[in-house]
Amino acid sequence: MRLCLPDYVQLTEIKGKLVLLDCQKNLFYGVSKSGAEFLQQIKHHGDMDKATKTISSLYNISNDQVRNDMYVFLDYLIQKGLIVKI
To answer: Which Gene3D superfamilies match (predicted)?
Structure first.
């Protein structure tokens, strides 16, 4: 699945915490370390499979578990307009 972060969404660090900024709606969301890594991978590769494989390797977790967890996270992000399918 091909994905991207829209131009109006930024992932940044504020006071040591990772946040996702929606510059259209002026909202921000706290992101866990693994969630932020997933978003960085999506930003870099634009591909769900590559992102989950990287997270699986980094955290020594099965790819199936990462994929299941990230689909829940991804569904939320898509509903909020923070990630779009391309």
So the answer is: Coenzyme PQQ synthesis protein D (PqqD)
Rounded Cα distance between 65 and 61, Å, is 7
Q: Which fold has domain 3-85?
A: Arc Repressor Mutant, subunit A (1.10.10)
Q: How far is CA 23 from CA 5, 68, 74, 79, in A?
A: 12, 28, 19, 16
- The structure's pTM equals 0.82
**Predicted pLDDT at 16:** 80
Dihedral of CA 66/69/73/75: which sign?
positive
Residues in the chain: 86
Domain boundaries, the chain: 3-85
